[in-house]
Amino acid sequence: MRAGALASALCAAALLGGCTTSTAIDRGGANPVAGWNAGTRALAANSWLYAQLAINAYEDHEAFILPGDVVQRTPTLGNDDIGYAYVIFDRFDGDELVETIIAYRGTEPGFDDFVLGSVLGGHHDRGLATAMAVYEQMQAPQYAQTSLSLTGHSLGGGVAMEVSEQPLGEDGEGRARIVAFNSAPRFGALDSETDRLSIVERGDWLGFLRQFGNRPSEAYSLDCQPGFSPGRDHSMRDLAECLTWIAAYDDPEAGLSLAQNPLIGRPVSQTSPERPRVPAEIGDGVPINPHSNDEDIAYRLRQRLTASPVLFPWYRSRVGWRVHVDRLEGDGRLSAYWVLNGVEQSRIVLTCEEPSSIESCIDLIVSGGEAMVVDFYSRPER
After folding, report:
1. Within this chain, do residues 194 and 134 fall inside the same structural domain, yes or no?
2. CB < 8 Å & 24+ apart, contacts of 192-197
3. What is the pLDDT of residue 258?
């Protein structure tokens, strides 16, 4: 749920009174960097990735380019007959699957989500069924070292909290880690054994309703956008950008995410001009992982990407964009495909028999990638 004009009007008086259900972690504290204390930076480092996944669950123009070790499963499962939707992401360490994350989508405007999903609780039962099915799958031996986490924004965060109240296994065992953002309130009992983290923007209009719900053991608020604007303060994209920016002061992976998502800007509440660290080796462009089965093609591809004003070749770690350009055996053709967040975006096969035509083919491939990335950042309302 991105806006709450009606609800914010109803709860404005309470919010003006300063009610809160969470710890204001960004107030005071030790070892500040650019005005953000050590506790706030640690919180951001532990949550920025889940914040990006929570916004990507909406599958719209606000999506982030994710770290390359996070792969979105396909097909995605959005909007059933009552508006319930979620996306599953797998996080890898090298070739080892270390974490599976279910991101429940928050409320979209309409009767299904608000009434059937939220008020009547239909999304909660389906969210539990999804988590139980994934947990059952993860009982296979190959998932022995894989953890399960749940995340979501607004109603999606509320669904994650609701699911955390129930065991996921038939034997009464099985719990998932929860990271929720600006979540809908929960009125059921929350045990103290489950790892639950709730992060909210101060002023979020749901703060009024959360006063009457049960508070997770770890619940924190941030003031990324000062001033009174309950609907604006409910925005997941703004909160995710803020957490990623703060995390990047200490976390190199968050710094790389800033390079992948150049539209992320300094939080409005930060008065210091100091910027987080972005890997110095990245040129003026969005980092791309290039791959090829041919050394000559790999060299030419790297040279063309280095010269690009939009893209930059990156080899030190996985990033969200990658391009594969492979020489097909025997017929002088090149196969090229682009991948974003683990999902193939486009694929072409070109005939490039002569050395001069290879240059032209690679130029065509990279030009197509440049157009794709520019389009990604130019979508309406980004």
Report:
1. yes
2. 192/217, 194/164, 196/161, 196/164, 197/46, 197/47
3. 95
pLDDT per position as a tens digit, 211-258: 655 556 678 889 998 887 877 888 899 999 999 999 999 999 999 999
Rounded to 10 degrees, the C-alpha dihedral 108/122/49/212 comes to 90
* AA identity, residue 182: N
Domain of residue 329: give its range: 286-377
**CB atoms closer than 10 angstroms to residue 353:** 11
Domain count, the chain: 2
Residue 273 lies in a domain: no
What is the rounded CA–CA span in Å between residue 350 and residue 327?
10
User: CA 136, CA 173: separation in Å to the nearest integer?
Assistant: 11
- The reply to whether 113 and 33 lie within a common domain is yes
Same domain, 195 and 100: yes
Question: Does residue 235 fall inside a structural domain?
Answer: yes
Are the C-beta atoms of residues 348 and 365 closer than 8 Å to each other?
Answer: yes
Q: How far apart are CA 279 and CA 277, in angstroms?
A: 7
The two most distant CA atoms of the chain are separated, in Å, by 74
What is the rounded distance in angstroms from the CA atom of residue 201 to the CA atom of residue 242? 10
318 band by pLDDT with thresholds 50, 70 and 90: very high
Phi/psi of residue 50, each to 5°?
-65, -35
pLDDT at 217: 61
Q: Are 253 and 261 spatial neighbours (Cβ–Cβ below 8 Å)?
A: no
Residues 150, 10 within the same domain = yes
Contact predicate 339/325, CB 8 Å = no
Q: Which pLDDT score is estimated for 186? A: 63
Same domain? For 245 and 298 the reply is no
Each residue's pLDDT tens digit, 266-302: 999 999 999 998 888 888 889 999 999 999 999 999 9
